[in-house]
Design brief:
Elements: H1 3-26, H2 29-56
Length: 57
């Protein structure tokens, strides 16, 4: 996995965590769920990159 992809996935994960916490703090369930979804997408992208790396080696 390239360092750029890894950094981007980490950024997306952190942004999702922030969105989730903001949703919890304001009582906005939609924002909270959106943050959780962003985190899940970042984790899936990261897993996909790891699978690609495994086949490259």
């Amino acid at each position: 996995m390239s360092a750029t992809d890894k950094a981007k996935n980490k950024f997306d994960d952190i942004a999702g965590q922030a969105k989730e916490k903001a949703g919890q703090a304001t009582g906005d369930r939609s924002k909270e769920n959106e943050g959780k979804l962003d985190q899940a997408k970042a984790n899936l992208k990261d897993a996909g990159e790891k699978v690609k790396d495994a086949f490259r080696d």
